[in-house]
């Protein structure tokens, strides 16, 4: 790419906004030129607006420290400075839906980390290795919005990244029933242990809204476009429990699967490790070379050892074995704020650029 695309971050001062800032620091295609946040942060430098709330392990990039934070509600003003935006705004769902469509109507593509538009029928919700063809629904969304270039695209919930790719790799064996328990890191709630000391040495067996997302969103990934909207798949049947655990980064899933066709363990491992998609074929900047790795050791995957696999963009799987009630069971691990949040959105944006949906204004 001759010239980098100009990127804005909506909700730039929050934890996911910070993650966007961090991972885009040396991006070969994208340059952060605008940061936008709530009116109370507007007018300050980014460094001043974030203050002591910088939550990343790496230092705040020098290039953004002196950027003046824009008011996210001044849509025309922000949109005029960028080619597209990443959205991580912290508002009510209705407010998020409205403001993301408002940006799209300025002919500014929006790649969102938020859940608000995940079930809007003509908004693609994409994991680029799984369902990039869903981006084709954008043409119908543009008709609804009255835009030529503007649209909204989203990535799915962080909790499904540790098992939905695996089940996709096993599609030819026809999974029919899935039971998954996710053990989810506190950064999924936008927290660190400093913010949430009561999580130290604790487990909370409830995360609001998470189980419905974990059961339904994979079905939307596996759905198809009919009459200009995405229709979710009929199966497999998925039931989940989602538990908050005292881990900073990394969602682990313990998963049980029943198949219509009976694969061998070797066939399942081969299908997993060979699974790839458009990001790998096009060698996109954020794409993991190996999307899913299989670990033979009985005590893997572990958050401490494996959460940063492929720069946090890969999925680690272990303990695949036959089960006495279901056919097989396994443990999956993914990085919830990289593959599961900002990194997944960046990979979506790279795919959209490669497919011609995002270009310089």
UniProtKB/TrEMBL annotation:
The keyword S-adenosyl-L-methionine is assigned to this record: no
Question: What keywords is this UniProt entry annotated with?
Answer: NADP, Oxidoreductase
For biological process, the GO terms are: methionine biosynthetic process; threonine biosynthetic process
Q: Which residues form the Semialdehyde dehydrogenase NAD-binding domain?
A: 6-138
Q: List the Gene3D superfamilies.
A: Dihydrodipicolinate Reductase, domain 2, NAD(P)-binding Rossmann-like Domain
What Pfam families does the record tag this protein with? Semialdhyde_dh (PF01118), Semialdhyde_dhC (PF02774)
What GO MF terms are annotated?
aspartate-semialdehyde dehydrogenase activity; NAD binding; NADP binding; protein dimerization activity
Asked if the Swiss-Prot or TrEMBL record annotates the protein with the keyword Lipid biosynthesis, the reply is no
Annotated catalytic residues: 158 (acyl-thioester intermediate), 251 (proton acceptor)
Which family does the entry's similarity section mention?
A: Belongs to the aspartate-semialdehyde dehydrogenase family.
Report the protein name in the record. Answer: Aspartate-semialdehyde dehydrogenase
Organism per entry: Eubacterium uniforme
């Amino acid at each position: 790419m001759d010239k980098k695309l100009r990127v804005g971050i909506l909700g730039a001062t929050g934890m996911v906004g910070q993650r966007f800032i961090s991972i885009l620091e040396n991006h070969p295609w994208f340059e952060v030129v605008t940061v936008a946040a709530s009116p109370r942060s507007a007018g300050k430098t980014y460094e001043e607006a974030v203050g002591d709330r910088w939550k990343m392990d790496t230092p705040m990039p020098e290039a953004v420290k002196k950027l003046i934070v824009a008011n996210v509600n001044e849509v025309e003003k922000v949109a005029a400075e960028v080619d597209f935006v990443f959205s991580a705004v912290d508002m009510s769902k209705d407010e998020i839906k409205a403001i993301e469509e408002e940006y799209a109507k300025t002919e500014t593509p929006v790649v969102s980390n938020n859940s608000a538009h995940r079930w809007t029928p003509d908004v693609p919700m994409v994991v680029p290795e799984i369902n990039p063809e869903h981006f084709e629904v954008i043409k119908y969304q543009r008709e609804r919005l009255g835009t030529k270039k503007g649209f909204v695209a989203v990535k799915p919930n962080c909790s499904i990244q540790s098992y939905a790719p695996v089940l996709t790799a096993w599609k030819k064996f026809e999974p029919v029933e899935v039971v998954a328990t996710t053990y989810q890191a506190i950064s999924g709630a936008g927290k660190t242990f400093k913010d949430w000391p009561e999580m130290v040495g604790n487990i909370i067996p409830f995360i609001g809204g998470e189980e419905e997302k974990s059961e339904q969103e994979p079905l939307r990934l596996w759905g198809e476009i009919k009459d200009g909207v995405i229709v979710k798949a009929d199966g497999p049947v998925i039931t989940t429990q989602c538990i908050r655990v005292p881990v900073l980064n990394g969602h682990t899933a313990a998963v049980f699967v029943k198949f219509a066709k009976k694969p061998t363990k070797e066939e399942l491992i081969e299908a997993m490790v060979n699974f790839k998609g458009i990001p790998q074929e096009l060698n996109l900047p954020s794409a993991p070379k190996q999307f899913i790795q299989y670990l033979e050791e009985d005590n893997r995957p572990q958050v401490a050892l494996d959460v940063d696999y492929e720069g946090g963009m890969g999925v680690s799987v272990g303990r695949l074995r036959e089960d006495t009630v279901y056919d097989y069971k396994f443990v999956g691990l993914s990085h919830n704020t990289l593959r599961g949040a900002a990194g997944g959105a960046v990979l979506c944006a790279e795919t959209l650029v490669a497919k011609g949906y995002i270009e310089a204004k």
